[in-house]
Specification:
It contains seven helices and ten strands. The protein is an alpha+beta fold and about 290 residues long. It folds into three domains: about 1-30; about 35-180, no CATH class; about 185-285, Serine Threonine Protein Phosphatase 5, Tetratricopeptide repeat, CATH 1.25.40.10. It has a six-stranded antiparallel beta sheet, with no helix packed on it. The chain has a four-stranded antiparallel beta sheet with strand order 5-4-10-9, with no helix packed on it. β6 and β7 form a beta hairpin. α4 packs antiparallel against α5 (about 235-250).
Length: about 290
């Protein structure tokens, strides 16, 4: 019995020591900043979102590509844990279809071309356990030479439109541009058609989508006429979109009349932005 009691005491001491060690290490870790900071970016794209998490090393006077990061070797595309990119909806990268999901973003630097890799294994430290058997996709792109030095590895989404965008990766004197597209038109059109059969018809969203994507304006016009009946809709907003739709149908006179009414309504509402927008619509209609 005494032996069992002593064993229990010994085990308890080990547990307490381990807990104390963890707390001490955790506390100590908070005292110093990470050499490579972590950044997470969330970007709306199409009907979904893209999440990107990576660690950001600095140049620190070193030659990076071809030296610190050798040509022809798999790189985690960052520091610390491998870079992770997550798509909530299907996308296309450089013409290659990618299903919604989470991927490790690796790359193979080259002097004249880079290989970009999406790995099905998104949870790993560095590229030490990388296996090409886990590859989901590989494609090749050309690097861009930068005159200005980018000290800290930087990734960003740029030129973001409803169905197209670019992921920029920049470090030292090298930039990479990955072109992305998403095909949401069929989904959006189906959603609009379905919603128009309900009591809460999405006139405003439908008109804007039809206008921006050059859809059937004869179908959008009666929706634009309904905008002025929506509770809380400022008249100068409804008039702006009706004017724009009329102009696309070819009715310049009608568009000019509605836009002029929109200018006056915006003035009464003390909304300088919509005075300008309706004035622009009026000028377009008078051309």
């Amino acid at each position: 019995m005494a032996s069992n009691f002593n064993t229990m005491k010994s085990n308890l001491k080990l547990i307490l020591l381990a807990a104390l060690t963890i707390c001490t290490v955790s506390t100590y870790a908070q005292l110093t900043p990470a050499p490579s900071s972590t950044q997470t970016i969330m970007q709306d794209f199409g009907l979904g979102k893209i999440n990107l998490t990576y660690s950001r090393p600095d140049v620190k006077g070193r030659k990076i590509f071809g030296n610190v990061e050798p040509y022809g070797k798999v790189w985690r595309t960052g520091a610390n844990s491998a870079t992770v990119i997550k798509f909530s909806d299907d996308v296309t990268l450089e013409g290659h279809k990618v299903m919604a999901g989470e991927y490790g973003l690796f790359s193979i630097p080259g002097e004249n071309e880079w290989t970009i890799i999406l790995s099905k294994n998104s949870k790993q430290w560095g590229a030490y356990s990388y296996k090409d058997a886990d590859d989901y996709l590989r494609f090749v792109i050309k690097p861009i030479k930068l005159n200005e030095k980018i000290e800290t590895l930087t990734m960003q989404f740029a030129n973001v439109f409803p169905t197209t965008s670019e992921l920029h990766i920049m470090w030292e004197h090298t930039a990479l541009v990955i072109h992305m597209t998403t095909d949401v038109d069929a989904k959006v059109m189906a959603r609009i058609d379905s919603a128009m059969k309900t009591d809460k018809k999405p006139y405003y969203d439908a008109v804007i989508y039809y206008y921006n994507n050059n859809k059937d304006m004869s179908k959008a016009l009666p929706w634009a006429e309904e905008l002025g009946k929506i509770p809380g809709m400022p008249p100068y907003v409804a008039m702006l979109w009706k004017s724009r739709v009329l102009l696309k149908t070819g009715d310049k006179a009608g568009a000019a009349k509605v836009a002029a009414e929109g200018v006056e309504a915006a003035k009464k509402g003390n909304n300088d932005e919509y005075v300008r927008l309706n004035s622009d619509a009026l000028a377009q209609a008078k051309k």
